[in-house]
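Sequence design from tokenized structure. All designs in this work follow the same two-part layout: the structure record, then the generated sequence. An example of the structure record is given first.
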């Protein structure tokens, strides 16, 4: 099998020739340390990763360069810092009338999927090209601010649903564009939970967030794309509802006492491909190479039996992980991930 066959076998809950390495996110300082002056694709090739994952791109305008504040195409003011996810600091929808005036970005803007188009030309049929994008939660809360958005769910649900529908419509158009250029997988990246549990009750999540997620999954499937759902945090109470939308993979399964890979394999392993669980806080950020190898062995032992599992970090190779740990993680996956 090549990487494309291997990943799709796992997503189809089959047994590939070995456990795929589906590392979806590497911070820029990690890439620079591994391939100085190089690109993500150079890391993919050098370490034989089984997928090429890029996020959609936005244009930004300066608001306050000293404070590193920039406005994106939604009108959200972000703090942009090296190797850190953009942090929303100001939100364009302050009252309902602002929503009526808001014009979403153009999903067909050439900048949006430029990296994906290049990756498709380079890897099509050899390694799957993955689009990281939002779904039905993160854009709405960033447009309103998290506190205001969560209050809207309780006090002004119709307004909240209109806000969500705006984001879902944009994302539907983005998925159509991704399918047109040859992307293979969409990875929906909205986080739904803290480390202690979800941001909202499962019932509220099902009412407000699940319909848009389901719509995106069904649209992607209609174009022949696979869907991986990412959410950090403790998903207790949400996993069944997420799987019910039809997603093909669940990522990254952060290791918590109430959320172990072994338990997820037992409960959900015949319904969805499980992806991740290599501890990116306690192991990939610690100096021990041996701990990385043992962590990989644990994940394969708990998740790989019968297929339907891909190895990855429990979130990302973020800026605080050690770049030298990617090699032993991949090597251990190749060595111990044979069936």
């Amino acid at each position: 099998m090549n990487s494309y066959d291997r990943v799709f076998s796992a997503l189809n809950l089959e047994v590939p020739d070995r456990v795929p390495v589906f590392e979806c996110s590497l911070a820029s300082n990690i890439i620079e340390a591994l391939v100085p002056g190089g690109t993500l694709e150079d890391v993919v090739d050098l370490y034989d990763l089984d997928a090429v994952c890029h996020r959609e791109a936005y244009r930004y305008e300066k608001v306050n360069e000293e404070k590193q504040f920039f406005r994106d195409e939604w009108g959200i003011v972000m703090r942009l810092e090296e190797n850190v996810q953009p942090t929303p600091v100001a939100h364009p929808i302050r009252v309902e009338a602002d929503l009526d005036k808001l014009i979403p970005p153009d999903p067909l803007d050439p900048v949006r999927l430029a990296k994906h188009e290049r990756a498709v030309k380079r890897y099509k049929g050899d390694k799957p090209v993955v689009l990281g994008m939002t779904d039905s939660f993160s854009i709405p809360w960033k447009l309103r601010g998290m506190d205001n958005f969560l209050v809207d769910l309780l006090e002004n649900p119709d307004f909240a649903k209109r806000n969500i529908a705006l984001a879902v419509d944009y994302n539907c158009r983005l998925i159509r564009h991704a399918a047109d250029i040859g992307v293979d997988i969409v990875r929906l990246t909205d986080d739904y939970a803290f480390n202690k549990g979800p941001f909202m009750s499962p019932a509220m999540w099902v009412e407000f967030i699940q319909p848009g997620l389901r719509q995106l999954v069904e649209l992607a499937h209609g174009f022949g794309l696979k869907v991986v759902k990412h959410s950090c945090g403790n998903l207790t109470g949400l996993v069944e509802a997420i799987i019910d939308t039809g997603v093909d993979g669940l990522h990254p399964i952060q290791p918590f006492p109430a959320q172990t890979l072994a338990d997820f394999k037992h409960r959900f392993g015949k319904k969805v491909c499980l992806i991740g669980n290599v501890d990116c806080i306690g192991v990939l950020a610690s100096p021990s190479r041996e701990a990385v190898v043992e962590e990989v062995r644990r994940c394969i032992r708990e998740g790989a039996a019968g297929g339907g599992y891909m190895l990855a970090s429990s979130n990302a190779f973020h800026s605080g992980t050690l770049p030298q740990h990617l090699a032993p993680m991949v090597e251990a996956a190749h060595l111990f991930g044979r069936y």
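The domain at 3-58+93-336 is CATH 3.20.20.210 (TIM Barrel). We note this feature because it recurs in several other targets discussed in the main text.
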